[in-house]
Amino acid sequence: MKALLLVVLSSLCAAASGAEPLPSDDVQVEQYSYSQALDIARVISISQLPEVCEVVPARMTYEDSNGRRHILEYRAMGNGCSNG
Hints:
Elements lengths: L1 H15 L12 E3 L10 E5 L8 E9 L5 E9 L7
Parallel strand pairs: 1-4
Antiparallel strand pairs: 2-3, 3-4
């Protein structure tokens, strides 16, 4: 009974934290470049940035105007920098 409760709570925590959906077999991760024209109709998820003061990889999962799902990997500044 305790194991079942643990599984249910773990599932709820993952859903509540906005966990990024796992890429399916037919969706490949694309590397972003500044010259790339993006067709973003709907953003599905954006990865959480860590509490570090450095550039880190991030991912955005989105659908284009044709309803096809894409996963875009890009570089972003972490959330750990302070202005003081």
